[in-house]
Amino acid sequence: VYQSKLDFFCKLGYGKQDICKVLENLGQEALEDDVLKELIRMGSKPQALESQAQPSSLKLVARGSCSASPGLKWLGEDESHSSDHLRPIVIDGSNVAMSHGNKEVFSCWGIQLAVDWFRERGHTYIKVFVPLWRKEPPRQDSPIADQHILEELEKQSILVYTPSRKVKGKRVVCYDDRYIVKVAYEKDGVIVSNDHYRDLQNENPEWKWFIEQRLLMYSFVSNRFMPPDDPLGRHGPTLNNFLSKKPVLPEPTWQPCPYGKKCTYGNKCKFYHPERPHQAQLSVADELRAKIKVPLSLRKEEEQRNR
Q: Which parts of the sequence belong to the C3H1-type domain (predicted)?
């Protein structure tokens, strides 16, 4: 009995010395509630509560506040917290390189220009997919310019080669477009390419929506990588909102009426009139409906009262 009670209170976190003292005073046949009351009266605390009461050396610091110890960070926060709001970037290396080389030369410098443009914006996850056979020496039918850039990007873990091999002298190349779309879809990122991937859109309806909404087209102007300011059209999001996970919606602005106080449209006018800010912008038909509803409701109330 003594040993069972000792084990029970040890599991609760109390020290053996305090438990032994209480059992000697109250006796082995004392009830567990009495032993617990005596432990509390003596001031004995479980080890878990004592560890919580001790001041810890690590302190949580709110974001944006100055801390006395700069080495301490918010728990679970890495160094790239400033770029968490930017989407991952997946670049179609073959498409970008051939576009920069006017569809005649595989220009690796075009890939470097695209990578640098996204780096300057703060994107940390950037992947470029290129077929493996582009590592081979250039030939007349497939010229390559600035091939050393591919090695440098591979060392920086930015460039990824899609597999390819030779079977009986013939090159067997895996479909690199499927790698590009699959990785961008899983990462919820953006595809940088001028290709529409129509064959992959027909394969998977989810990929079809993703390609339509997350495809970023571009142009090269005098060795300058330039994506459009409106990637999804004039009425779509801006480039900053397109590349960010948390887009900032613009505040709605009312266009002022060009006629001003001379406007004769009244409530039918679709423009903003600063001289009548509290006037409801209702059409004539809606205004008449609103006036008709009021007497109908009054009639119903009168009928209920009469009943």
A: 251-276
Residue type, 58: L
Contact of 108 with 145, CB cutoff 8 Å: yes
Residues 180, 190: Cα–Cα separation, whole Å: 10
Question: Is residue 96 classed as helix, strand or coil in its secondary structure?
Answer: helix
Distance of alpha carbon 248 from alpha carbon 241, whole angstroms: 6
- What are the tens digits of pLDDT across the range 286-297? 656 666 655 555
Kindly give the residue spans of alpha helices, DSSP state H, lying in the chain. Answer: 2-11, 16-26, 32-42, 47-53, 93-100, 108-121, 148-155, 176-187, 198-203, 205-214, 239-242, 284-306
CA distance 221 to 194: 15
pTM over 0.90: no
Taking residue 159's Cβ as centre, other Cβ atoms within 10 Å add up to 23
Q: How far apart are CA 174 and CA 176, in angstroms?
A: 6
